[in-house]
Every structure is written in structure tokens, then in C-alpha cells.
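worker-03 picked up job from queue 'complexes'. Input manifest follows; two sequence lines, order preserved.
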Amino acid sequence: KNEVEQSPQNLTAQEGEFITINCSYSVGISALHWLQQHPGGGIVSLFMLSSGKKKHGRLIATINIQEKHSSLHITASHPRDSAVYICAVRVGGGADGLTFGKGTHLIIQP
Amino acid sequence: GAGVSQSPSNKVTEKGKDVELRCDPISGHTALYWYRQSLGQGLEFLIYFQGNSAPDKSGLPSDRFSAERTGGSVSTLTIQRTQQEDSAVYLCASSLMGRLEAFFGQGTRLTVV
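worker-03 finished. Artifact:
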């Protein structure tokens, strides 16, 4: 079974700071997702990665397949970025769905 | 709408009652997943449907949980004789066959009192 570890568990930062959230997993994967969950809200899929790097607005996600590690970066952070960020991995064709990390609770203070 | 739709968004039920949760996946998506997020816990996989194949039920926590998918589209997750530990947010996701990206619904928040 794949173990997914996220760090940090909690992060409080000031508006404008550069944010990095890390995800490590134990078994080779076919894809990795970064998800965002706002309090009381549903889950939004931010990125799906199988290699390299993706950028969307102020968000950047990278993955290193050899090191079994991914990072989510937020540039020029804003209070509206406050949410739980969840890393999820899929092995093979996805018959067992995704395995999720426990999430990183991010608070951006004005 | 174009996204995954779940209903109801909130459900409060008495212990021992049965509940049904519904998921409308994105049209054309053949893969459908149910997940559960208990308070303070991470997300856990419950069940997976892919086309007309037999579902992968390996994540269902007990025989009180069942799910079906009619016509390869809408799915219903049923919890019989609900217990307080069933209180959680139940999330549904769908994806295209052979594609790895999953799209999530807003979830159903179930509270068993």
C-alpha cells in the first residue's frame, strides 16, 4: 500500500509570502493530484501530474518521480489561498482510486 | 451543469436509519469513485465503478455500506442502520476511461445523531 506523507501539517504565513507544501510517497505511481479544500466546501482539483512541472496562475506544482516527491508552491500568497491542500496519488490504472495524504492546513494572514 | 453533482449537500439522520447519497458524474465519464472524509481524518477510498465491470468494493468499511450505478451514470451510496461513526463528508469523483484526472463533487455532509 502506498503511504503518502505531507508536510507541514499546518502552516501560517503572512500575505505575500512564498509557500511550499511537500508530498512524499512510498510506491511508484502513475499520477499525483494536488487538491484544495476550503472550509465547509468541496474539493477542487488543482493539478494532476505524472512528470515535470505545471503552472496555473500563482500555483506551481512539481514532481520528481525518482525521488517520489512532489511540491506545491504558491507565489504572492493571499488570504483567499487559506485552505487545506491535499496530495493524492494513483497507482496503475486507478482501480483502487486515490490514496490521500492527511492534508496541509494553510492560513494566510493579511 | 458540467461538473460532478452530489445530493443532498447535507443530511442529518437518526442512528439506525438508512440513508441514500446520490452522485451524478460528468456526462461520458465511465469511472466513478466514492470517498469518505471523517472529521479530523484524511480521505479514504470506498468503492470504484468502471464501465460495466464489477465494482471494486474493497474500501467499503462494513456490509452496511453498498453502492450501485445505474445505466453507467448515476450512482447511489446506501448506508443501512447508520451509526454515529458514519458521520463524515462523502465525496464522489468521476473520470474518463483511461484518463487519470478525477473531478470531484462538492460532497454530502452526513451527520448521524
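worker-03 released lock.
Strands of chain B lie at 5-7, 10-13, 19-24, 31-37, 43-50, 65-69, 75-79, 88-95, 103-104, 108-112.
The radius of gyration of chain B is 13 Å.
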